[in-house]
Amino acid sequence: MKLIELYLEEIRHRLPPRNREDILREIHSVLMDTLEDRDSNTGQAFDEETIKSVLKEFGSPRKIARQYGAHNYLIGPRFFPLYILVLKIVLIVITALNVLGVSVVFISQSGFGTGMWETISTILGGVLNTLFTGFGIVTLAFACIERTTPEDWGVDFEKDWQPEDLYKEENQERIKLAELAVGITMNLILIAALNFFLDRIGIYYLSDSGWVSTPILNENFKPFIPWITAYAIMDITLSIYLIRKEYWDKTGSIAQIFINVFKIAVISAIISSPGIITIDPTTWQQLFPNAELTAQGLTHTVNLVLEILMGIAIFGLSVDSIKRLYLTFIKGRHTVIEINKD
Amino acid sequence: MSNDAIQEQTQNLVQELRRGVIILAVLSQLHEEQYGYSLMKSLEDQGMQIDQGTLYPLLRRLEEQKLLESNWRMDTSRPRRYYILSDFGRQVLEEMTLEWSRIKTTVDQLLEK
Fold first, then answer.
1. How far is residue A46's CA from residue A60's CA, in Å, rounded to a whole number?
2. Alpha-carbon Rg of chain B, whole angstroms?
3. A64 contacts chain B (CB < 8 A)
4. Which of A19, A33, A70 has the CB atom closest to B37's CB atom?
5. Chain B window 75-94: which residues touch A at a Cβ cutoff of 8 Å?
6. For residues A176 and A117, what is the distance between their CA atoms, to the nearest angstrom?
7. Residue A184 near residue A236 (C-beta atoms within 8 A)
8. Distance of alpha carbon B95 from alpha carbon A56, whole angstroms
9. CB-based contacts of A236: which residues, under 8 Å, 6+ apart?
10. Around A317, how many Cα atoms within 13 Å sit in the side-chain half-sphere?
11. What pLDDT score was predicted for residue A114?
């Protein structure tokens, strides 16, 4: 019976929310009727082989979900999970960029003034506008994909589906889509910022001649850019691989450990190099003319704080690598899926 | 053309042909209340085999189109959804039956020529 619960669960997360519970209840009822008809041991639990053969006959959860959703929705079960993922990424990027914009205004003006509220309300208005636009574009794109992709797309893959796969998937640690989506977004922002907008990473302030920015990353940092870009690309590649797989497998875990070791090496090299941040004395003087702390003193403190943060990151990466090693090679099996039994 | 190709093409076309009459077949069996599995068996016994993956979503679609009515019955060994023709469904079925007779006569005549 466990196999049936797993089967229904696999169908559940592929169904659009409308009528989800009712459809599942019906599929459950049909499965039980079919099993009862096939199994001669009335009153006893159905044997595993009968369950497997009935499930095989019904077909993969993906197929069942598609049959119940075909043509009734703007975006059907085939593309629904991918649609949600892309939507999350797009909305997170838009929100992150806008929050960054608000932060820059706040930090560079070191407090709220009258003009500041005006700027922020304009930005917030823009946030809503861009969020709706992003939502609209993604939805429209997926609606077009839904209507132009042939009905039998991916059917060959589904023919190979076996009920035993449900156990295999159960024994794996499911990936966290939202986490991976945020990871991909952050890495893309990191790659773009370091390779194309390095001079924009800095202190922003409003001078007499308008908005001015002073870069804070110095020459010591530049040799690390290709290495940081490399691990960001590796991270993105692994995330895409995991999204396709839907769970952590041995290859994914080994790749994650390798990337973690690579990151630790890069971060260690950054820590052992001279400070990578320099606060420009002229900017500092202009922003805080009466400050006791000199630009040189601040540079030293910021680099020290950064080194501590990088040390914490190394610790986190080490813990993550050990956890993955343990889950993959020692424990052998991973987190169990929680089955909703209603 | 090889025999296999003829068989395959015939099978595809027969499937298409059956797809067109499945709705009529399903509606015709729902003057009396039936749950999905019993309906599938009854159709099968009369020579009309329908895959469950086709039947159940079809029943839901027909209900959405107001041709069928359904209710969950708890008085059986386990909850089951029973379907029956609605008044609207009965009228549509009558019209469809007439249309089917006309199509059948026409096609028979065409095939005889």
1. 20
2. 17
3. yes
4. A33
5. 78-81
6. 37
7. yes
8. 39
9. A183, A184, A187, A188
10. 19
11. 56
Give B59's Cβ-side CA count (13 Å radius). Answer: 29
- Residue showing tokens 């959860």: A61
Closest CA to B89 of B29, B48, B3: B29
Please name the residue that has the structure tokens 């029943």. B59
Going by C-beta distance under 8 Å and a sequence separation of 6 or more, which residues neighbour residue B6? none
Q: From the CA of A30, how many Å to the nearest CA of chain B?
A: 6
Kindly state the tokens that stand for B5: 């190709």
Tell me the sheet residues that pair with B85. Answer: B68
Q: Which of A33, A58, A72 sits opposite B53 (nearest CB)?
A: A58
Q: What is the ipTM of this complex?
A: 0.82
At residue A337, the pLDDT reads: 36
**Distance, CA of B105 to CA of B92 (rounded, Å):** 20
Query: What's the sign of the alpha-carbon dihedral B47, B48, B51, B55?
Result: negative
Distance in angstroms (rounded) separating the CA atoms of residues A198 and A218: 10
* Residue the block writes with tokens 């019976």: A1
Interface test with B, best of A11, A25, A31, A33 (most B CBs within 10 A): A33
> Would you say B50 and B28 are in contact if contact means Cβ atoms under 8 Å apart?
no
* Alpha helices, DSSP H, located in chain A: 2-12, 20-38, 48-58, 61-69, 80-109, 114-148, 155-159, 165-170, 177-196, 225-245, 250-272, 281-287, 295-325
Q: Looking at residues A197-213, what average pLDDT do you find?
A: 74
B78 contacts in A (CB within 8 Å)?
A: 29, 32
**Does the beta-carbon distance from A30 to B52 stay under 8 Å?**
yes
Q: Residues A268, A253: contact at Cβ < 8 Å?
A: no
pLDDT bracket for residue A336 (50, 70, 90) = very low
Structure tokens at A46: 């159905």
The answer for residues whose C-beta is within 8 angstroms of residue A247's C-beta and 6 or more apart is: A169, A172, A173, A174, A175, A334
Number of cross-chain residue pairs from A and B with Cβ atoms under 8 Å apart: 43
CA A46 to CA A21: how far, in whole Å? 24
Spacing of C-alpha A187 from chain mean position: 10
Q: Residue A199 carries which DSSP code? A: G
What is the average pLDDT across A5-13? 87
Q: Which of A200-209, A266-275, A288-297 has the lowest mean pLDDT?
A: A200-209
Q: What is the pTM of this model?
A: 0.49
Lowest average pLDDT, out of A223-232, A329-338, B31-40, B86-95, goes to A329-338
